Amino acid sequence: MLPEIELDLAPAGVRLFDATGGYRSDTPPPFWSFAWPGGIALARYLLDHPAVVKGRTVVDFGAGSGLVGIAAARAGATTVTAVDTDPAARDAAVRNGRRNGVELQTAASIVPADVIVAGDVFYSGAVAPKVLQVLRGARSEALVGDPGRGFLPERLFEELAAYDVPVRPELEEDGDVMRTRVWRLVRATSAAASAAGP
Q: Taking a C-beta distance cutoff of 8 angstroms, is the pair 178, 120 a contact?
């Protein structure tokens, strides 16, 4: 779906937990070494709709490989910061950015930006509220790519696009194609926010 972008990812046949033995390991699994459906759809959306990020500062939140940030940079963002808690992911984002002729800045936590993009970050019930808190607290325009994992609070978002994303078998998803949507966080108007209370 993204012939414009090349990434240094895990080779075919290597599965997510091969190197770590699963979540019981002290070493986190290398999420950054795979392109996830939410990120693929969101990157495609940015390349097809460059006005969303052109001339604006962008944060790629939960950046992983840097895929979405690279798409934002290719679409004309003035600066892109790949934000990820995993230093290996931040290194991968920089490497992949250079491979595609763009420079990504990195950070371990959120930084100010005009737009926040986040691919496949609503992947568990424990993580989803924390992600939502970051997106709502940042006061930036927030776009999310999500393949329907069930943890995105859809009532707070508006759908912008939908894609059928091919999925690598190594990710062990439910099928070889996932219907993946791009969403924008709806910001409450000040009047609505006042009426809703704290």
A: no
* Contact in structure between 113 and 58 (CB atoms under 8 Å): yes
The residue type at 152:
L
140, two tokens: 């930036």
Say if CB 74 and CB 49 are below 8 A apart.
Answer: no
The structural domains of the chain, ordered by start, are 32-196 (3.40.50.150)
**Cβ count within 10 A of residue 41:** 29
97/14 Cα distance (integer angstroms): 23
Residues 10-47 pLDDT 10s:
877 766 656 555 555 456 668 898 899 999 999 999 99
- CA dihedral of 52, 77, 9, 165, whole degrees rounded to 10: 10
Q: Is 152 left (phi over 0), alpha (psi -120 to 50) or beta?
A: beta
Q: Give tens-digit pLDDT for 106-162.
A: 999 999 999 999 999 999 999 999 999 999 999 899 999 999 999 999 999 999 999
